[in-house]
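hiii, so i know i said id send this last week but things got crazy w the move. better late than never?? heres the sequnce for the chain we talked about at the cafe, plus the structure i predicted for it. fair warning i was half asleep when i ran it
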Amino acid sequence: MPDSRPASDGPVWRLRPWVRLRWRELDGEHVLHEASSGDVHLLDAASALLLRLLAEGPRAEGGLAAELAAAAGLGAGTDARGAVRERLEALAEAGLVERRP
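okay and structure toks below
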C-alpha cells in the first residue's frame, strides 16, 4: 500500500514511469533487468527492498527508512534514513527511481 504520510516525512520517491523490471536472486545477490533500457543491475538486499516497495507505489523517504530498519531488525533509534537516501540517489543515478514532482 502506498505511503500516505505527510511531506514532513521527507521527499516522496517513485519508480520512473517507464521502468519495467525483471528480477532474479542469485546467491543472495539481486539481479534485475530493466526492459525499456536493456540495462542490467546488481543490487544489495536493501536496494532491492527499496525498489520492491516503490514498485507498489510512491513512498515518503522517512517511511522507506522505517520499513528498511524494520526489515533489518534495527531499533527505532537507528538512523536508516541516511542509508536510504544514499541508495535512492544511486538508484536515481541508474535511471530507476525519481523524486515525485
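btw Residues 14 and 20 are 13 Å apart (CA to CA). thought thatd interest u
miss u guys!!
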